[in-house]
Design a protein that fits this description.
- With 348 residues, this protein is an alpha/beta fold.
- It has 7 helices and 18 strands.
- Strands 2-1-18-17-15-3-13-14-16 form a 9-stranded mixed β-sheet, with helices on one face. Strands 5, 6, 7, 8, 9, 10 and 11 form a 7-stranded antiparallel β-sheet that branches.
- β5 and β6 form a beta hairpin.
Amino acid sequence: MTAVDAAPAVDLPVGVEARQPPEARGLRRDGVRLLVSRPGVAPVHARFVDLPRFLDPGDLLVINTSATLPAAVDAQADDGRSLRVHLSTPLPADLWLVEAREPAGAASTPFAGDLRGTTLHLPAGGTVDFLHRYPRSLRLWLAALQLPSPVGDYLARWGQPIRYSYVERDWPIDAYQTVYATEAGSAEMPSAGRPFSAEVITSLVAHGVGMAPLLLHTGVSSLEGEEEPYPEPFSVPADTARQINEARAAGRRVVAVGTTVVRTLESVVDSAGAVHPGGGWTDLVITPERGVTAIDGLLTGFHAPTASHLWMIAAVASPQLLEAAYAAARERGYLWHEFGDSHLILRR
């Protein structure tokens, strides 16, 4: 059985993609809808600003403080053809995992051709040399990147946030940041945390809910159907591991804010359920068959049926709970993807 076979039967309705940030729809970032799913009860409809209402004093939210890079850069081939390069994940020796896409209007579509041995020219004299396809991906390439300035400075000048065709137009990089982001490094926004506002965080703290940080720099999410996630760098501080272990020992819930947090914590939890500090690279693939150990809940968005994120979410929630949640979301017209609505899954 594949991970896709093990995932629940959900579908993506036509026209429910969030095409712009909530602020452009007349909402605050914390004004998006929140669907709350718990075993044995019907899904509850609320707003994200109501989040403290569904958590108990002593619960612990674990957040990913990675900030988003403007990782899309226009490029040109020697024959004059225009492409767009998405810088996904930095590797040693100025190597990167990158994705090439063909401009299609303001957005882009995947480039299906063979780029091995091709050099693309970037603004201000930068180049990207495509070496070979990354063996665990259908779209990613191993490439050598040469830039005239440090990558952060270069992208700040020449890069744009990665966006896909369902987003109507370009938005500034600030639209792709969480309010608690501290260290730039993600090719795409760890979007489960986007609805948090200073006001919601203040309400959570006043309610006795804790927040603990970790870091995982996520790469591009435009993976094909059964394509597995690839390795990503992460770091779990000692104090975060301590807070998680103390919360669980006291019977309090640990709720991951986003699938990046789940992947990180499941990479450092031992067979007895204790979370350890540390860092490195994780290539963990979480499926319903594997299950999860380190968390009691997940705050996430709504994901396409073939997305690897959905495999992980199905490891947190039962198929029945998840199918009921997605049916309720479809009925009420919840919005999908990074600018869309939120889903709180509590396992107990």
